[in-house]
Amino acid sequence: MKNLLILEGSPRKKGNSNTLAAQAAAGATELGAQVETIYLHGLKISPCNGCNACVKTGVCTIKDDMQELNPKVGSADALLLASPIYWYTYSGQLKVCIDRMYSLWNSNHEVFRNKPVGFILTYGDVDVYTSGAINAIYTLDSMFRFLDSKITGFVYGSLLDVGDAKKNLDLMKQAYEIGKKLVK
Predict the structure, then answer these.
(1) Is the whole-model pTM more than 0.90?
(2) Which residue from 104, 99, 108, 184 is spatially nearest to 150, judged by alpha carbons?
(3) Which of 66, 76, 156, 158 qualifies as a FRET site for 170, CA 20 to 30 Å off?
(4) What does the pLDDT read at residue 1?
């Protein structure tokens, strides 16, 4: 049985990106996967200090919730990162979490190699360019290519108001399918 770890970067528990993430979880569960969803806004994750201690030791010197989260990221068979677009990229909650995964990577440069990774991005603008989602797509794609992950795909779309995800059947279907793809 595969396990999928979903990292929700929205501060809104019932926001559109989290709604789509739940749909992806349903798709993965249909195939028998075990799914754990982490609501990042509810965790205490401090920004990276840039001290580079983890380069030498593989261990981050900051004591917070990343000490429990990094092992979950490392042991997951697949990852799904979900975030709204704020100020032309993914949320600060997701950014701080990703930055702190640096110590996980320094402890084992193979940790992300061939790991299926998918992304869900939502934005309140007319398209992927004016919203800034294109910046998030480029950054996440580049980052996980560097890590030699298996990029499974992106689900993204314009959802102006809270609750719009449930009304967009195409995005709901895409989210469901990416959940299945991640654990196949």
Answers:
(1) yes
(2) 184
(3) 76
(4) 81
